[in-house]
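Input set for joint prediction.
Command: fold jointly, output C-alpha cells.
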Amino acid sequence: MTRTIKVDVLARVEGEGALDLEIRDGRVTAANLKIFEPPRFFEALLRGRAYTELPDIVARICGICPIAYQSSAVHAIENAFGVKVEGQLRALRRLIYCGEWIESHALHVVMLHAPDFLGFADGIQMAAAHGDAVRDGLALKKAGNALMRAIGGREIHPVNFRPGGFYRVPGRAELEPLAGELEQGRERAIRLLRWAKKFPFPELERDYEFVALRHPEEYPFNEGRLVSNRGLGIDIAAYESEFEERHVAHSTALHSMLRRRGAYLTGPLARYALNFDLLPQSVRELAREAGLGAVCRNPFKSILVRCLELVYACEEALRLIAQYQPPEAPFIPLRPCPGTGFGCTEAPRGFCWHRYDFAADGTIAHARIVPPTAQNQPSIEADLAVIANAHVQEPDDRLRQLCEQAIRNHDPCISCATHFLKLSVRRS
Amino acid sequence: MNCLIAGIGNPDRGDDGAGPHIVALLRNRVPACVSLSLHAGNLLELLEEWRDFEMVFCIDAAAAETPGGIHRITAGEELPPSAPASSHAFGLVETIALAAALQQLPPTLIIYAIDGVDFSAGAAMTREVGDACARVADMILGELKGCARSRPHAAAGG
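C-alpha cells >
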C-alpha cells in the first residue's frame, strides 16, 4: 500500500517550498523537499556588471541575510585585487555580522521554530502563553537591526558596503548607545536558552559531516578555512575541487554534495561542532547548562545552538564596540585587475561561498554563488527520511507536523537557495 | 493626546505606496502633537514605536479587485487582506494580532486601508488610489480636529 503525505506550502520558512513523502509497505521510499520558487538568475545578471555594483546587487538575494552576500562578495573582490581589510574596518565587518546573526536567529528561534515544540500553529498564537519569550525575541531582533542600521545604513539591503570597507564609518558616539541594548540582549538570549532547553526534543542523533569555516583565533564570521569533522581542511579557493552542485528534478535550487562523500551539513550545528573551543568560556558554560556537549547531532536541538550563538553575538558585539576607534579612512582603495576572487562567510544558516572572474577593468565575467540552504537540501531530505521512518505508523497529520518541524530545524532560506509546506505522502 | 500616523508600504510598488503617500500629504499639515513615520516590509518595530502614543493611525494598501475603496477599521474588527509581503516579514494584520496577544495595542488604534490592484515593482500608483489617498488625508485631519475639540488641552502636545 502506498501512502502519500503532501504539504502544499511550508509555513514558517522563508520562501516557497513543499514536501513530498512516499511510504510504501511501511517504509519511506521518497522524501523530497520541493523548492518551486522560480530561479532568480543572479549569477547570470551579474555578468558584465562592474565590481563596484556587486555588493548592492547581491544584497537583494536576501532581505534577512544581506550581510552574508555582501560580505562574501567584497571579500572575493578584495581577494581578486590583492587587498586585505584589517584593523577597525575588519572589526566593523564582524560587528555588522553580529547584528545579522542576532536579528535572524532571534526571529527564527521565537517566531518560527519554538511554536513547533510547544504545539502552536504560529508565533502569534504562542505569544499569549509565552509573552515574555516573544518580547525577548522581538527586542533582540530590534537590537540586531539597530546594529545593522548603524553600520550598514539600513537593515534591509544595507547601502554602506563597498569593496575595501565602507562608504562611511560610524563614530564612537553612534555605536556606544547600542551597548545598552546589547547588554540587555545578552540577558534576553540567556533567558531564551533557558526557556528553550525545557522543550520536548525528539530523540534523534544524525551522523552528519559538518562543514564550516574555521579560524585559528575566533568563532568564524568572515574568514577561515573550510573544515569538516571528517578530515576536510581546504582554502576556500579549493571549494570547487571538493564540492559539486547538482540539479534535481524536484527543486529549482541546486543540491550541493561533497564529491567524495555526498551530503553534508552547514549552519549553526556545524559551526558549533567545529569551533566549540573558540567560544568564550561563558558561552561554553551555558551550553553545558543546556545539556549540550561540544558537538550536537540532534537537529531538533539546533534551536539551543542558535540561542548560544545569540549570546555569543551579543558578547562579541559588546567587545567590538568597547574597543572601537574609527579608522582613518572608511575604505582601502583598490585597483581592479584581471583574475579570480573567492569569498566565503558564515551566514546565519551556514557558509555562503562566492567566486567571481573579473576582466581587467573589474567587469564581472563570471559569477558563482553557493548559498547555505541549497547546500543543506540533501541533509534535510535525509533527516526527513529518518524521521518519517521512525514515525511511519503515526497518522498523516502528526507525520506532516513532524516533517515540517524537521525542515524548520534548519531555518531554510528558500529565496536565497534559488539562485538560479506542500507535503505529499504516498503510501502503498 | 499624542498621536502617531504610520504610513505602511513600498512607494516603488505601485498602489503599495498609498501609506507613504498619505504621510507625505499630511506632512506640514498636522499639529505638533502628531508624529509621522514610514514603514515597509517587517512591521515588528511598530510594536515598540507605538508604545509612547495614545492614538495610532496605520495606513496601508489592501489587495482588492477594484481600486480606490477606503476602509476605516478599528482594532478588533476584521482587516481586509494585506498587500503581498515577504514570507519572513510581519504584515499589519500579523503585527496587530501579535500586539493583541502581547497586550501591547495602543489605547486607540485606527486603520485606514485603501484598496489597491497593482503592486508590481516599478508600477505607478493607479489614479483611483491616488484620489483615495487625498480623501484619507482629509479624513485623518478631520479626526485629529475632532480629538482636539473633545480634549482641547491634550491637543497642545501634553
